[in-house]
Amino acid sequence: xxxxxxxxxxxxxxxxxxxxxxxxxxxxxxxxxxxxxxxxxxxxxxxxxxxxxxxxxxxxxxxxxxxxxxxxxxxxxxxxxxxxxxxxxxxxxxxxxxxxxxxxxxxxxxxxxxxxxxxxxxxxxxxxxxxxxxxxxxxxxxxxxxxxxxxxxxxxxxxxxxxxxxxxxxxxxxxxxxxxxxxxxxxxxxxxxxxxxxxxxxxxxxxxxxxxxxxxxxxxxxxxxxxxxxxxxxxxxxxxxxxxxxxxxxxxxxxxxxxxxxxxxxxxxxxxxxxxxxxxxxxxxxxxxxxxxxxxxx
Length: 298
Prior knowledge:
By secondary structure, the protein is of the alpha/beta class. The chain has helices spanning 15-21, 60-73, 99-113, 127-131, 147-155, 170-181, 213-220, 229-233, 236-249, 275-291, and strands at residues 36-38, 41-43, 50-53, 77-79, 116-120, 136-139, 160-163, 188-192, 225-227, 253-257. Helix 2 packs parallel to helix 3 (99-113) and helix 9 (236-249) runs parallel beside helix 10 (275-291).
């Protein structure tokens, strides 16, 4: 094992943590960075892959239309939830989950648009079913420390995105990621999606985007670090500037919520952008990415 170069990696993470708590997640040299390919798309290289789509897979027409639009704009993956960790237990015809129907619609969108799929899996009993459609399994923030569930997801053999819980430290996040790598699953992406803070600048905003965690994580781990500015800001006008800032901060992937009719989205209508705005964000992100030696568009 190569000695860890940084003997004092941070306030919360010690050299002992890197050596004994999450040695598989930890960088062994200053230049080590995971590079792997999912659905023909490389992570960890010059390209900054983009995941885009609605929070919820509402119906087949919407998800297919969105898949084609985000693919045309340059996104490599369609995101959309068939199984949703809705904050409250109450449902309505609009505020609901499409579950197995949603997975079928994602499969149709994948085929018709020729785009990769990332979608959340919430329960162990649905892992195999979701894995039949998804190229990447998303582990949501609320499941970040559900350790038996993490183990089950890792054993499915699919690439994984691990979202940071909004109340957890970088140390907690990397510890959760170690549960995935210890099962032999090396295709793991970390995703920052906002943290709890006493001041969030709007009544509707629940979280603050922690851009500082991007370089902080990259100092100690070789795993790609993605950012989700949509969930982090919870406010449409802030998504573009925070997406640009994420690229400048060194994010290895970006997740953006996109909907054909944002104000009428079934879930979280305050944060998605429409197709035209997304196309503009993609071009602007590419400009920033190229300024820091990366790229968004081919």
